[in-house]
Amino acid sequence: MRNIKRVIIVGGGMAGLTLSLTMKKRGIESVVYEQYDHQQRLDTGLLLWGFATNRLRDLGVDMDKAGRFLENIEIYGAKNECVATLPVGQVSREHGTGSYEINRRRLIELMGHLAGDSLRAGHRCVSTHTDGNTAVAVFEDGSTVEGDLLIGCDGAHSVVRKSLYPDVELEKANGGGWGAVLPFHPPGLKEACHLDFWQPGTKCGMADIGNGECRWYVNMREGGPSSESRNKESALAAPKDPHPALVEAIESTDDRLIWITDQTYLKPLPSWHKGRVMLVGDAAHASTSHAAMGACTAITDAFELGHMVASDKSAEEIMQTFEDERKPIADEVLKKSKSGLSMSASNSRIWAWFRDMAFRHMPEKQAKEIAEKMVLAQESDKDSAH
Ligand SMILES: Cc1cc2nc3c(=O)[nH]c(=O)nc-3n(C[C@H](O)[C@H](O)[C@H](O)COP(=O)(O)OP(=O)(O)OC[C@H]3O[C@@H](n4cnc5c(N)ncnc54)[C@H](O)[C@@H]3O)c2cc1C
Fold first, then answer.
1. Ligand 1, atom 27: closest residue by C-alpha
2. Separation of 353 CA from ligand 1 center, angstroms?
3. How much is the pTM?
4. How far is CA 326 from the centre of its chain?
5. What pLDDT is stored for residue 52 in this prediction?
6. Cα(6) to centroid of ligand 1, in Å?
7. Residue 33 in contact with ligand 1 by CB distance below 6 A
8. Residue 368 needs a FRET pair 20 to 30 A away by CA distance; which of 14, 90, 231, 278 works?
């Protein structure tokens, strides 16, 4: 018999909505409390690998509405020449999946629609605690809700984590950057393609994210933008020799669409749960954006937890089993993300020359293997973590 009947989820991002949809499919009641009652002001784009989109498709998410099936990642070296093409689309198809470049807002809207009445917008949680076998969330207006379990999916600046670990703060890493989503395709953009530009001190990129939209980003290895430099001139000045397609995209951007970010991460927590409260996604393991894996990991975490909650295990067994399975994987992603942009944005021109030469002469088989590692990453990590 199931021990868990009612679950409270704090945070309606990718982790919270994935968890709610997974449990809905398994017949478990959950309510997602999201602080905002409106969509984010600025659109952002990201890449979701096949191992994560498989789970979303299983939940009924139409990935073609959220973004664009990714065919190739083209890597451009220090001299702005294409040094390698990773056949992500071919590999994804061979494994019965698809890796996608998406607009985050579109994906959240689709998932929110599927969640229906389970999603309650405009509810900001301010603290959580456990009372016997009951988890309690307290909201800004003083109201409270109770459940058998409370899952904190409230992102890197998690209030739920603060309730469990009042002294833990996010750490600052080197680097930062600019980005934007354009409501059109600039001329230099290749269809269904992600272009990665590796230059001394910066890693930049642009990609087709579907629905006639494109995203670009500029990441600095050291330093980063301030609020005064949230404009295209500053973004363009960061790479030493920006690729013409990137210049075109940035120059055609309205400054009001540009976002800036710094790089933060969380040191691995001793445990992701206490009492009847558990952390999932960035709330448990925020990493820098360098590994481009945070959302994929959050989705996979939430999907796996949703299935475990539906088992007949006790609350404590569910939380411990989940943590034993997922924490080694998340800790590994964190380690990779902290090594930052050492390969793609090395400041050494000699090193970059050797790197580009090695990539240019990389056999097709090896390019395919790299793509395979990314498309299926956490499936194989999961095997090695056991
Ligand atoms: C620049 C950048 C690029 C990235 N690129 C990629 C990429 O290419 N691929 C990838 O896999 N990952 C990428 N990531 C990481 C990814 O965005 C995160 O890992 C992912 O969004 C985490 O999902 P989440 O649901 O755990 O948290 P979030 O997406 O942060 O969602 C948390 C939700 O909780 C809500 N919330 C917060 N506090 C409260 C509260 N007190 N009460 C109620 N609700 C609350 C928030 O409003 C939000 O809706 C990138 C990140 C950045 C910054």
1. 155
2. 36
3. 0.96
4. 16
5. 97
6. 24
7. yes
8. 14
